[in-house]
């Protein structure tokens, strides 16, 4: 089902403004649907890559980095280095354990060394609390800009996050129900609600007409036994699209299975087009919201990668970075076994970290 439900003018006739708007919305929905499909596909690729490739490599890198850290720690505890050299060693150890804890926050040995070498004398737990609060502030700001209202506590765990999402969804449904069923406060509001109700009825009538046309063609009870299973499948797609208010898909199916000619869309009345455009606008908002929810599940840079066309290239680049980093650490381990070589490296090491 590749044909877009676009209005194509006959005999080089120009489209009306509302027909152009309809085509614009159709193209926008098609683009967003493709983007959502790509994001969901990228989620699968990312999750598989993280579990099967990236995480095992990160574990190897962590073990290698910890070997180097323990060697540096031994040098610090020894009498082979001056006070100034030990100050540099302490900063190197702190830098490396911080990198380990970014990947493995529960590494107890890394936490122990972090607390010992922390330049500001703050514990790992205290520093992480400050960082987590900043991250929650950022997530709260980002989700708010997308139309979602979260408390900081909602970002404590994935379980809290998804529970809040369900609560928000239920609240949204309840508010809609109450809005539809509440009594108007005055005549002006009664007129506004009546207008909204009539418009919704007209919208539902427009999409119902599309659904009925397709149902007459594909209802399995009206089909021969040989094609009944096929029609049941198509009918399920039609029903799902109708229940979601997916005008785009219903129009697309109407073109593919009934009209067989896109030019038939030119016959749609201005009033019908206005209703279809309203449905398409709703679809645009819903798809954008769904894309936002998919990306909110992951931290940066993964959340950004989900929106890229070639996520595998990003993953391959990450794998190369990890492999390269591990090779460098293996080389550093060999050098660090030689005290004189360590002293030479420390001599060229410039302290950039300022104590607070």
Topology (SSEs and partners):
Blueprint (H helix, E strand, L loop, with lengths): L16 H61 L5 H21 L4 H10 L6 H22 L12 H24 L5 H32 L9 H17 L2 H13 L10 H27 L5 H4 L5 H26 L2 H10 L8
Alpha carbon gyration radius: 30 Å
Largest sheet: none
Count of extended strands: 0
- Please give the count of helices: 12
- Give the amount of beta strand, in percent: under 5%
Order of helices and strands: HHHHHHHHHHHH
Mean pLDDT over the residues:
82
Q: Tell me the structural class.
A: mainly alpha
Which shape, going by the Cα principal axes? Answer: elongated
Question: In terms of per-residue confidence, which ranges show pLDDT below 50 for 5 or more consecutive residues?
Answer: none
Query: How many angstroms separate the termini?
Result: 63 Å
Helical amount among residues, as a percent range?
over 70%
């Amino acid at each position: 089902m590749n044909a877009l439900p676009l209005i194509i003018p006959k005999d080089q006739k120009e489209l009306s403004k509302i027909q152009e708007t309809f085509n614009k919305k159709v193209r926008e929905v098609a683009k967003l649907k493709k983007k959502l499909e790509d994001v969901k596909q990228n989620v699968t690729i990312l999750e598989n890559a993280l579990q099967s490739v990236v995480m095992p490599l990160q574990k190897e890198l962590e073990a290698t980095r910890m070997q180097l850290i323990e060697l540096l720690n031994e040098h610090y505890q020894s009498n082979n280095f001056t006070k100034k050299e030990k100050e540099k060693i302490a900063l190197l150890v702190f830098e490396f354990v911080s990198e380990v804890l970014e990947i493995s926050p529960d590494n107890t040995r890394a936490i122990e060394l972090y607390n010992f070498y922390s330049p500001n004398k703050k514990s790992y737990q205290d520093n992480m609390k400050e960082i987590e609060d900043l991250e929650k502030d950022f997530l709260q700001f980002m989700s708010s800009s997308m139309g979602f209202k979260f408390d900081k506590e909602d970002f404590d765990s994935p379980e809290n996050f998804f529970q809040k999402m369900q609560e928000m969804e239920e609240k949204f449904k309840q508010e809609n129900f109450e809005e539809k069923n509440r009594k108007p406060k005055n005549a002006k509001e009664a007129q506004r609600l009546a207008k909204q109700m009539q418009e919704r009825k007209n919208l539902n009538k427009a999409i119902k007409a599309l659904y009925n046309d397709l149902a007459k063609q594909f209802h399995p009870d009206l089909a021969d036994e040989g094609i009944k299973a096929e029609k049941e499948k198509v009918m399920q797609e039609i029903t799902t699209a109708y229940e979601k208010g997916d005008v785009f898909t219903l129009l697309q199916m109407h073109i593919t299975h009934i009209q067989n000619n896109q030019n038939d869309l030119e016959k749609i009345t201005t009033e019908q087009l206005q209703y279809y455009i309203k449905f398409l606008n709703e679809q645009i908002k819903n798809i954008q919201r769904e894309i936002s929810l998919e990306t909110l599940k992951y931290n940066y840079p993964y959340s950004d990668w989900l929106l890229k066309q070639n996520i595998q290239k990003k993953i391959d680049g990450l794998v190369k970075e990890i492999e390269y980093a591990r090779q460098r650490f293996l080389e550093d381990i060999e050098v660090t076994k030689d005290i004189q070589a360590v002293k030479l490296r420390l001599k060229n090491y410039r302290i950039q970290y300022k104590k607070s």
